[in-house]
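User: Here's a chain of 130 residues. Predict its fold as tokens.
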Amino acid sequence: MRRRSGLTQEDVARHLNVTRGAVGHWERGKNQPPYDVLVKIARLYNTSTAYLVGEIDDPAPLMNVSTEQGASEERTEPPGWEQLTDEERRLVLRVTKAVEKALVTHLLQQREGNVPIRKLKENPEVDELK
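Assistant: Prediction complete.
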């Protein structure tokens, strides 16, 4: 992503306030950035942390959710996120993505009058998470 963006390791390091060596280590898989830096990397490349950690294949950033007042509410990680292991974080992201997909599909079907709301719990996308 860095090269496609036309950035050097030094550019990225300066943006993230880390050393060039740290960026090199992350790129070679020697270690991983802390979560707060991962969020900055996602913003730098206009993608999501889920994409960066390999949980989703789509590099498009996760969309902001509009509130009733018209303001934009950026997705943030819940309290305690930083205490989870990488494996636990991947599980949370995978479950969240599956539930989100199932709910959107269901709501669109309901809008068309095809599925009553009580059928959501029987959705195969949600069932696979049980």
